[in-house]
Amino acid sequence: MGTNRSTLKTSSRSDRFFAVDALRGLIIIFMALDHANYFIAHQHSSGEYWGGTLPVYDSLLAFMTRFITHLAAPGFFFLMGVGMLLFAQARGKSGWGKWAVIRHFLIRGAVLIALQLLLVNRIWPVASNGWPDIYIGVLIALGGTMILGSFLLWLKPIYLVALAVVLFIGTELLVPDPSLWGQFKIAHPMDYLNPILIYPGGDGSLWSNYPLLPWLELVVFGILFGNWLIRDQRQAYRGALIIGLVFLAGFLVIRYLDGFGNILPRRGDSWIDFLNVIKYPPSMAFTLLTMGINLVLLSLFSRANNWLQSFFYPLVIYGQVPLFFYIVHLILYASLGLWLAPEGMSLANMYPYWLLGLLLLLPVCWFYRIFKQRHAANFVLRYL
Question: Torsion over CA of 60, 62, 64 and 69, rounded to 10 degrees?
Fold first, then answer.
């Protein structure tokens, strides 16, 4: 859903950044599964919040359906940071100044926020009773972190590392004690700052699932990785595997110790309890686990030969039109849910409709991608 196109003239997009687009496409289909679950099955998790209780899953299918979709949000923020850096580098070569690049991201970030407020927030209530007046969802967070990240694109890597670490640890330290869950009320304009910037929560007037600062760390990490990708593509992809494995090892340690970095302790001693981590806001354990897997997948995609690249080409199609896919797939699955299962259905019965939605969206995304390429100079399409 972030910037995903580069005009580097030294090589074609598909050759140089296949792995980036393929990973984005993969997490897009995982995201679609999560939303098909919400709109069609009506069995979506109640949410892994910093307070309250962790979700309980009554079957392996229910847990795995939720678990694999956890890769989507951190992957989107990370890849948006990568895409922003690639865009800035390419536009710089074609003569754009820093403020022209920043202006582009300010406008695009504002478009994302507007789409959330004016369109997406009218779709979510279709499958839910009760909805806040203002909902801060993923598009607002992507737009907000894009705006903030646009001012960080020219920082030296060492400063990006420091900022990512500060955000990674610091935002965890700012999460309130879980016993305070449910006590948040908006009684003063300053009360909006916490759910917008630091930790999820709210009331009937405003609810936030995606405060900006905990997700900004992944955008910063993406900008850092984008710098590496430009300097040495092969080394960057090899490094992604190493860093991914280090992240996974870090997750195992933090989760085993079950203290700082988890936000909430494990419910029990099963492997599902071990992997059932806090997403809202992203705990250190959540970030290490999901980004560890994403980085390993990115490295594996980079090793794909020509045959595998052709096999995974549908992922690239989805991955190159993420915002378009996001909007259209919400409308599609919400419509399918209203038509086929207004009261919901079993997870097993939902899966074919998830796949049907992906098949219907593939040619639509393919045509839109071609249309956008042919009208690349169009001012409106440039931000969609």
Answer: 180
Give the SS3 label for residue 259: coil
> What are the b/e assignments for 355-376, b being 16+ CB within 10 Å?
eebbeebeebbbebbeebeeee
Our measurement of the distance from residue 303's CA atom to the centroid of its chain's CA atoms, rounded to an integer in Å, reads 23
Q: Which of 144-153, 196-205, 302-311, 318-327 has the lowest mean pLDDT?
A: 196-205
Contacts of 145 (CB under 8 A, 6+ apart): 77, 80, 212, 215, 216, 219
Give the list of residues 6+ apart from residue 166 with CB closer than 8 angstroms, or none: none
Residue 177 has what DSSP assignment?
P
What average pLDDT does the segment 182-198 reach? Answer: 80
Q: From CA 274, how far away is CA 13, in angstroms rounded?
A: 39
Residue 230: partners with Cβ closer than 8 Å, 6 or more residues away: 85, 86, 89
The long-range contacts involving 305-314, CB below 8 angstroms and separated by at least 24 positions, are: 309/18, 309/22, 312/22, 312/25, 314/25, 314/362
Taking Cα atoms as reference points, which of 14, 12, 10 lies closest to residue 317? 14
Residue 220: CB atoms within 10 Å: 27
Instruction: Write the pLDDT tens digit of every residue in 76-126.
Output: 999 999 999 999 999 999 999 999 999 999 999 999 999 999 999 999 988
- Work out whether strand 206-208 and strand 134-136 pair parallel, antiparallel, or are unpaired: parallel
Torsion of CA 74, 79, 84, 87, to 10 degrees: -170
Task: Dig out the tokens for 270 from the structure.
Answer: 């099963």
CA 54 to CA 249: how far, in whole Å? 23
State the Cα–Cα distance between residues 31 and 73, nearest whole angstrom: 8
Q: Which tens digit of pLDDT belongs to each residue from 135-162?
A: 999 999 999 999 999 999 999 999 999 9
Per the listing, tokens 């690639």 go with: 86
Q: Quick check: helix, strand or coil at residue 208?
A: strand
Kindly indicate the confidence band of residue 221, based on its pLDDT and cuts at 50, 70 and 90. Answer: very high
Torsion over CA: 316, 27, 199, 210 (sign): positive
Can you give the pLDDT at residue 314? Answer: 96
Task: Please list the residues that pair with 280 across neighbouring strands.
Answer: 49
